[in-house]
Amino acid sequence: MDAGLSIEERRLLLRLAREAIECALSRQDLPLLDPQSLSRRLLDPGASFVTLYCVGELRGCVGGTEPRVLLAQDVREHAIAAAFYDNRFLPLQAEELAGLQVEVSVLSPVQTLTYESPDDLLRRLRPGVDGVILTDGARRATFLPQVWEKAPDPAGFLELLCQKMGAPPDEWQSGQLEVRTYQVEKFLERDFT
């Protein structure tokens, strides 16, 4: 990844994410982004995931792996999607807002991971560092690097990712999957309070 985000940029992205959620909860239009108040990095296309926690439990997580809009806009869109459109959860309710913690993960560019065999794939993965995207035809799934905390074994990590993709858990051993990796710069609101 290139030079990291400054503390001010991190704070601003977290504020934009929370503001987007609050506007959606109150059915208000989002204010237009002010390019004068945003750094060059936040105005460049960027890919992000926004993860929400309520009382320490996962409450939503939505993002994308490819840059398509300004990073600041990407974070706002994914904050709303994580709060209201993650199909694993009911839409966020106003009473949950006080206990909500927002985490933003800004992704590095995605890189194809070449490997010779299943064992080689296991050796090349960097637990706790790499986010992984598996693709098999039209099926695709990704785990952020944070998922390594719950699945630290590379084989187990890949099995869970195959299941998320809708494939048998051992599909990663076929040698037929496209494997791509990325890294993230992640930060939580509680880091700044």
Kindly report the spatial arrangement of strands forming the biggest sheet.
3-2-5-10
DSSP summary: helix tally: 5
Tell me about the largest β-sheet: 4 strands, antiparallel
Helix amount: 25-40%
- Total strands: 10
Shape: globular
Structural class: alpha+beta
Ranges with pLDDT <50 over ≥5 residues?
none
Radius of gyration of CA atoms, rounded to a whole number? 17 Å
Strand content: 25-35%
Tell me the name of the CATH class of the largest domain: Alpha Beta
| CATH second-level architecture of the largest domain | 2-Layer Sandwich
Mean pLDDT across the residues is 95
Could you spell the SSE succession in H and E letters?
HHEEEEHEEHEEHEE
- Could you state the CATH homologous superfamily of the largest domain? Hypothetical protein ph0010, domain 1
Domain tally: 2
